[in-house]
């Protein structure tokens, strides 16, 4: 969404009652169901269930290169544009807060650190960790892991400028290098699955 002339990302704080990743920041989303025809359907259905966003209020822009979460699930980000007038109605079973962050924060953060990350298959990469202070609501959010990975990639695609921290991409060939990173990660996982057969 555009707020005060700047692109913003809408994020959620997961409910503490959830079995998986309680209290962590993520995008609205979830597992695909048989009724979904594709990942876009899944994303729109989940956004409606979690934050009350009506699918017809979303202008879907694109899908991004998938990521892999810590349970080794394949996660496909769907990017959509929504109006600034959207009023979220969080489903309290799943979401305890909804907030927005300027997209530019993910290339030029005020509070950032990087952590080495080793997947269950031994693949080495880095994990971004942002602290975002929402001054209006006097709350701070920690945005890290897979959520931060997607936010950084989208910010790089949109702004096409060098971030103030290191990233594992060739910035002159962003899409290909992100596909290559994903394929390497996926291959390390697939190799392990095969050897477990
Ligand atoms: C750089 C990479 C770092 C990776 C490490 C981290 O991310 S560190 C963590 C920092 N936190 C984050 O970044 C949050 C990342 N997580 C997410 O964004 C979200 O969990 C998600 C979009 C992937 C999934 O959303 P939800 O958990 O709300 O999904 P939902 O409620 O539908 O899940 C119902 C069940 O389906 C499973 N499930 C969810 N997505 C799935 C998928 N793509 N493929 C298979 N299964 C899936 C869930 O584990 C859960 O299992 P059960 O019913 O068995 O419970």
From TrEMBL:
Name of the protein: Peroxisomal coenzyme A diphosphatase NUDT7
Subunit-structure text: Monomer.
Pfam families: NUDIX (PF00293)
Similarity remark: Belongs to the Nudix hydrolase family. PCD1 subfamily.
Domain Nudix hydrolase stretches: 1-124
Localization: Peroxisome
Organism listed in the record: Accipiter nisus (Eurasian sparrowhawk)
Catalytic activity: 3alpha,7alpha,12alpha-trihydroxy-5beta-cholestan-26-oyl-CoA + H2O = 3alpha,7alpha,12alpha-trihydroxy-5beta-cholestan-26-oyl-4'-phosphopantetheine + adenosine 3',5'-bisphosphate + 2 H(+); hexanoyl-CoA + H2O = hexanoyl-4'-phosphopantetheine + adenosine 3',5'-bisphosphate + 2 H(+); dodecanoyl-CoA + H2O = S-dodecanoyl-4'-phosphopantetheine + adenosine 3',5'-bisphosphate + 2 H(+); propanoyl-CoA + H2O = propanoyl-4'-phosphopantetheine + adenosine 3',5'-bisphosphate + 2 H(+)
SUPFAM superfamilies reported for this sequence: Nudix
PROSITE patterns (alphabetical): NUDIX, NUDIX_COA
Major subcellular site: other
Top EC group: hydrolase
GO cellular component, one term: peroxisomal matrix
InterPro entries to which the protein is assigned, alphabetical: CoAse, NUDIX_hydrolase-like_dom_sf, NUDIX_hydrolase_dom, NUDIX_hydrolase_NudL_CS
Molecular functions per Gene Ontology: coenzyme A diphosphatase activity; magnesium ion binding; manganese ion binding; RNA binding
Keywords: Hydrolase, Magnesium, Manganese, Metal-binding, Peroxisome, RNA-binding
Role according to the record: Fatty acyl-coenzyme A (CoA) diphosphatase that hydrolyzes fatty acyl-CoA to yield acyl-4'-phosphopantetheine and adenosine 3',5'-bisphosphate. Cleaves CoA, CoA esters and oxidized CoA with similar efficiencies. Preferentially hydrolyzes medium-chain acyl-CoAs and bile acid-CoAs. Has no activity toward NDP-sugars, CDP-alcohols, (deoxy)nucleoside 5'-triphosphates, nucleoside 5'-di or monophosphates, diadenosine polyphosphates, NAD, NADH, NADP, NADPH or thymidine-5'-monophospho-p-nitrophenyl ester.
BP terms from Gene Ontology: coenzyme A catabolic process; nucleoside diphosphate metabolic process
Cofactor(s) annotated in UniProt: Mn(2+); Mg(2+)
Protein's UniProt keywords contain Ubl conjugation: no
KW RNA-binding (keyword) present: yes
EC number, as in UniProt: 3.6.1.77
